[in-house]
Specification:
By secondary structure, this protein is α+β, with helices and mostly antiparallel strands. The protein is built from 14 helices and four strands. A hairpin with a 7-residue loop joins strand 3 (about 135-145) and strand 4. The longest helix is centred in the middle third of the chain and has 43 residues, at about 165-210. The protein is elongated, with a radius of gyration of 32 Å.
Length: about 375
């Protein structure tokens, strides 16, 4: 019960007591006045206590929301925590919350208000409001300090309130936005660092690949294919990261002036990684990417689900690039032909689920590889 309801109830009850007293139950006016004073005083104390409890609850919700934001270690997790934070601190009847990036946001035609809201908020006008018949729409841009490119719009809609957004709600939203801005800056810097290290890693790998004729670019292409397959299979963020680096590094035990199959290179490559648990998925993907689904691969003859999932994905990505880019030009296959060859080995050489993922993402893989290697794209189309 809100404190104003307590005040109304207290006044009503006190008035009833006074009326009863004045009608003869208590003949003395002094007693009636005392009852009135006691009733008003008790009502005030109860209302004050309720108001303090509500304020404390809102502050606790705000603190929990800020603590969650600080735990964000990626853009998706930040957006998720922002949505939860808004629902925690807003006191109105919220019907929908969205965290949108103007550069990539897609707005369904049947609901263009979101686009209008993002456009207005992107102008840097602070908290933006669009009033509808039954709902109010709000948007607030969050920008990473020192970055002109990275920005996010915090949006929500709630049941129309003629009095407008409560002051406390606006203050809480601004507090959350300020905290999110700092987290956004941290993630932005983290992304730049990862991009730098990734480029440095690719340069190092290319130096090794260039030692083998016709092998240049293989790891980068395999990583691109594996990334898409991983997304299609619903890998989580950690698995996607480890798959990407395993794909880039899967042949580090092989770089020499030969591209013949060397059954020692998976184990040699795996030994290059530390024995820490942090490296387990990458190390195992590298070590077992030449295992076959039926158990006829190497180095251990593992089969089916005894082969780590990342290794099963990597096996398909590796052979796909081998068929479309590494083989001599006269024997090179188009992406569709490569898929058909891999599909024939479903259940024997490759995990059926991964082959299905390859089929479903074949167009996207071809599109992305065309951007990476234009000459090959021309050959496929021809």
């Amino acid at each position: 019960m809100q404190y104003r309801h307590i005040v109304i109830s207290g006044f009503t009850l006190t008035a009833l007591l006074v009326a009863v007293t004045l009608n003869g139950w208590v003949p003395y006016w002094a007693i009636a006045v005392l009852i009135l004073a006691a009733g008003l005083g008790l009502t005030y104390l109860l209302a004050l206590k309720q108001k303090q409890q509500e304020y404390l609850a809102r502050q606790q919700a705000l603190v929990r929301a800020l603590q969650d934001l600080l735990k964000a270690d990626s853009y998706p997790s930040l957006f998720k925590y922002l949505e939860v934070a808004l629902r925690r601190v807003l006191t109105g009847e919220v019907t929908e919350v969205k965290v949108l990036e103007p550069a990539v946001a897609a707005f369904p035609e049947e609901n263009p208000v979101w686009a209008d809201l993002v456009n207005r908020a992107g102008a840097g006008a602070g908290l933006v409001k669009i009033t509808g018949e039954d709902e109010d729409w709000y948007g607030l841009t969050i920008k990473a300090p020192g970055s002109e490119n990275r920005e996010t719009v915090l949006c929500w809609r709630e049941k129309h309130n003629p009095a407008g957004l409560p002051v406390q709600d606006e203050e809480n939203v601004n507090t959350i936005a300020a905290a999110a801005s700092q987290v956004l800056a941290r993630l932005d810097q983290q992304q730049r660092n990862e991009q730098f290290l990734n480029q440095l890693l690719q340069i190092t790998i290319k130096a090794g690949e260039d030692q083998v004729p016709g092998f240049s670019g293989h790891s980068q292409r395999v990583a691109l294919i594996a990334d898409i397959l991983g997304q299609q299979l619903g890998l989580d963020e950690r698995e996607s990261r480890d798959l990407h680096y395993a794909a880039l590094l899967h042949d580090i035990g092989r770089y020499k002036v030969s591209q013949d199959v060397d059954e020692d290179h998976p184990v040699t490559g795996a030994r290059a990684f530390p024995a820490d648990d942090e490296w387990n998925m990458i190390r195992e993907a590298v070590q077992f990417h030449h295992e076959r689904y039926d158990g006829n691969g190497f180095p251990e003859g593992r089969k089916m689900t005894d082969i780590p999932l990342l290794a099963r994905i990597l096996a398909v990505a590796d052979i796909f690039d081998g068929l479309t880019a590494l083989t001599p030009e006269e024997h090179r296959l188009s992406p569709q032909q490569a898929y058909q060859a891999i599909q024939k080995a479903t259940g024997s050489g490759f995990d059926p689920l991964v082959v299905v993922a390859l089929k479903d993402s074949l167009a996207l893989i071809q599109e992305q590889l065309a951007l990476l290697t234009p000459p090959a794209a021309e050959e496929w189309q021809g």
